[in-house]
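Dock nicotinamide-adenine-dinucleotide; give full complex structure.
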Amino acid sequence: MKAKVYYNTDGDLNALAGKTVAVIGYGSQGHAHALNLKDSGVDVVVGLRKNSSSWQDAEEAGLEVIETAEAAKRGNIIMILIPDQHQARVYTSDIEPHIEKGDALAFAHGFNIHFDGIVPPESVDVFMVAPKGPGHLVRRVFTQESGVPCLFAIYQDASGSAKDTALAYAKAIGGTRAGVLETTFKEETETDLFGEQAVLCGGASELVKAGFETLVEAGYQPEIAYFECLHELKLIVDLMYEGGIEGMYYSVSETAEYGGLSRGDRVIDADTKKRMKDILGEVQNGTFAKEWMKESADGLPNLKKMRDNLDQHQIEKIGKDLRSMMNWIHNDKESEPKKEAQPAE
Ligand code: NAD
Ligand code: MG
């Protein structure tokens, strides 16, 4: 099956006419959505906690900021852009009491709807517009007259026009300039969790660590192992991003191409794929979501332990020293509104 893609002509901003969008949260996604909506002429208000450190940033950017509950009351479209693990609590206390028939509840990730952390009333639309990129990119490319591709999905269509609203929203944040792909809350949530666990965050970092350890245990200098197994990964990933796996192999030496193609599947083999399927199973049957919600509610005891373990790993210590030799790394980093300290639960 090939996904259907929607472009600018498929979205009509008139679907947002006379409506107020309440963007709840002003972090990575929140600042980008709010500013892009405003620049598209949409009436937007940002909802935050009274003591939020982002309050001033949002006001200085020219946005109207009010408390979350008030924003939920004002908004006809309520886009929830706070961290996934806090959404259910904030929804119950500040949003649910103010959501009315005819309103729309919107998300940039399907987690809480798909795993029933949030159960919206049947009288409202529920849709998702999820940019496939971090907020600073969503904002930057928008100001350059372009856009980041988005996924969109309809979970509940009470009004009969949820799709028009979702596509108009995607257009207003720049998504239809690049292309917007239709998905479902289930597909987006499950593939997103699987991707970050098995490939992007979990899989890639364990691959790097295992390669580093293999070289260091064989007596090679850790600095050299760091460059080979971690630092140079960026070059390879950039090549894949630009030209796919073939494009990457086209750009590296023929020695690297032959070595990679003939050896790679001995590292990642059928057993690895079997374990990936197990991980996907835990995502699909809700085991992971349940475990993560409990971990979050308990104050993150295991996450803190795993962070400490990682911090003690030689690759992290050596990396700090080596990166301080590369002053361009931090200079190039895009500025993004800083994350607030998470509230103590
Ligand atoms: P973030 O951590 O960058 O920002 C969260 C913001 O929410 C904070 O800056 C603060 O303004 C606010 N906030 C935090 N706790 C709050 C609370 N208890 N009550 C009210 N406001 C609170 O979050 P993010 O990365 O922008 O993620 C927001 C949503 O977007 C999530 O659903 C996430 O899955 C999704 N998403 C993120 C990305 C990404 O690249 N970061 C990409 C696509 C989708
Ligand atoms: Mg993700």
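Observed: The first strand starts at residue 5 and ends at 6.
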